[in-house]
Write a structure and sequence with these properties.
393 residues, alpha/beta, Uracil-DNA Glycosylase, subunit E, 3 domains, six-stranded mixed beta sheet, two-stranded antiparallel ribbon, 8 strands, 41% helix, disordered N terminus, binds iron/sulfur cluster
C-alpha cells in the first residue's frame, strides 16, 4: 500500500460507522475532529500528505516496519482484520481515537512517532514492537528477511530455510496469524506497568540454545510480558525462572537466571522451543493458529533431530505438539497415543533405527508451581532422568 494511504484511517472508520451518520462523520472530519470520537485531531493527522511524508521518513530511518510489514502485499490480511493498515492503526492510537485497543498504547505513543526505549542491558533505543535489522541484540532477521503472511507461506518459507539461522530469522518476522500479530503488538505497545520503561520485542520468538542439542525442551507459546518482551524463549517470567534454574542445576544452562538477551545465559547440549511462536491471548492459541505455526516447529525439529536424544514436553499441549510433529515427520508413534503426565515417557524410533525418548513434564507455570503441583524436586528429578537418557550407552 502506498505511503500516501494513511488517510485510510478515514476509510476504515467510515466503514464501521452507521450509514445514516456518514454525513455527520465527514462534517466532523472536515472540522478537524476525529470522525468517531469527536476529539480534536492532532495537526499532523489532519494533513494526510504531511502524515504520509512523516511515516515515510520514519520508515526509512528504521523506526517503523517496512511498507511490506505495515500492510502492503502479503501482510495485508492481518491488518485488514484489525481495521486498516498498521499505519492507519498507529495513526488512530496517536490521535487518541477511542477505537485504539490499548489504553497504554495511547499513553505510550506520542504524536511524534513511536516511543523509543533503551534495551535494559544493551542500551540503544528501540520502538515496540522492534522492527527487524535495527540492532536489537541477537535479532536474527533484517529488513530483507522474507515475511510469511499466510499459513501457506509459513510452510514454504519453513521448508526453504537453508539452516537454523535462516529459519530463526524467518520465524521472527512471521505475520501469518492476524489475531496473534495483533495481540503480540498490542501487548508490546501497552506494556505491563512494571516493564513500562523497556522496549518490547513484540515479534515471534525463535528457538534458543545449542544448535546441536541432546535435550530439546518444548513449551506452548511465549508469554505476552515474558518472551514477547525479551525475545528469548522462557525469558522474563516466573515460568522461565523455574525452567532455567532447573536446567542450570542439571548442567544444561550456564547460569540459573534468564532475564534479557545479553545476560550471559547460554544453553549447553540443550535447546528450548515452543509449538506456537507468538504470545496468544489467555495462553490459548486456536487450532488454526497452532496448525499455521506447525511448519516452523517441524523445520526446527528436522534441523536438530539428528543430535537429539531426549525431548522434554512441557504440559499436555507441548506433549501433543511433539508427538504430532514427529508423526508428521514420518516417525511411528505408538498406538494408542501415549498419555501425558509428569514423568510419562515414550520411546520413538527415528528413520535409521535410532530411538529417542519423549518425557512429559508439568509446565512450570505459576498455576502449577504456586499450587505445589510442580516442585523444584520434581523438575530436578525429571531433568536428572533426561540427563541419564542423554548419556552414551
Ligand atoms: S503463531 Fe506462528 S504462524 Fe502464527 S504469526 Fe506467530 S509465528 Fe507466524
Amino acid at each position: 500500500m502506498a505511503l500516501s494511504q494513511p488517510v485510510s484511517v478515514t476509510a476504515d472508520a467510515r466503514a464501521s460507522a452507521p450509514a445514516a451518520s456518514a454525513r455527520m462523520f465527514l462534517r466532523r472530519r472536515r472540522s478537524g475532529r476525529c470522525g468517531q470520537c469527536r476529539r480534536p485531531r492532532p495537526r499532523a493527522a489532519r494533513d494526510p500528505a504531511r502524515e504520509a511524508a512523516r511515516l515515510g521518513a520514519e520508515c526509512r530511518a528504521g523506526l517503523l516496519m517496512s511498507p511490506r510489514l505495515r500492510g502492503a502485499g502479503p501482510g495485508q490480511g492481518d491488518d485488514a482484520a484489525q481495521g486498516g493498515t498498521r499505519a492507519a492503526r498507529a495513526a488512530r492510537v496517536r490521535h487518541g481515537d477511542r477505537l485504539g485497543t490499548a489504553q497504554g498504547a495511547q499513553k505510550g505513543a506520542g504524536v511524534d512517532g513511536p516511543e523509543l526505549l533503551p534495551h535494559p542491558l544493551a542500551g540503544g533505543a528501540f520502538p515496540s514492537p522492534v522492527p527487524p535489522g535495527i540492532g536489537w541484540p541477537g535479532d536474527p532477521a533484517d529488513s530483507s528477511t522474507p515475511v510469511a503472511a499466510t499459513p501457506g507461506e509459513v510452510a514454504s518459507l519453513a521448508a526453504g530455510a537453508v539452516d537454523l539461522h535462516a529459519l530463526d530469522a524467518r520465524i521472527s518476522v512471521c505475520r501469518a496469524c492476524p489475531r496473534l500479530v495483533s495481540w503480540r503488538e498490542e501487548a508490546a505497545v501497552a506494556k505491563r506497568k512494571s516493564f513500562a520503561d523497556q522496549p518490547y520485542w513484540g515479534r515471534p520468538v525463535p528457538g534458543f540454545g545449542d544448535e546441536a542439542p541432546e535435550i530439546l525442551v518444548v513449551g506452548l507459546a511465549p508469554a505476552a510480558n515474558g518472551s514477547n518482551r525479551t525475545s528469548r524463549m522462557f525469558t522474563g517470567d516466573r515460568a522461565g525462572d523455574w525452567l532455567y534454574a532447573a536446567l542450570c542445576r542439571a548442567g544444561f544452562a550456564a547460569i540459573p537466571t534468564s532475564t534479557h538477551v545479553g545476560d550471559g545465559q547460554r544453553l549447553q547440549r540443550a535447546r528450548i522451543m515452543s509449538a506456537v511462536r507468538c504470545a496468544p491471548p489467555g495462553n490459548k492459541p486456536t487450532t488454526a493458529e497452532r496448525d499455521a505455526c506447525a511448519p516452523w516447529m517441524a523445520a526446527e525439529l528436522a534441523e536438530v533431530l539428528p543430535t537429539v536424544r531426549v525431548i522434554v514436553a512441557l504440559g499436555g499441549y507441548g506433549w501433543d505438539a511433539v508427538l504430532r510433529s514427529l508423526r508428521d515427520a514420518g516417525v511411528r508413534i505408538p498406538r494408542p497415543k501415549p498419555r501425558f503426565g509428569h514423568g510419562a515417557r515414550t520411546a520413538v524410533e527415528l528413520s535409521g533405527g535410532r530411538c529417542i525418548s519423549v518425557l512429559g513434564c508439568f509446565h512450570p507455570s505459576q498455576q502449577n508451581t504456586f499450587t505445589g503441583r510442580l516442585t523444584e524436586k520434581m523438575l530436578d528429578e525429571l531433568f536428572a532422568d533426561a540427563r541419564a537418557l542423554c548419556a552414551p550407552e
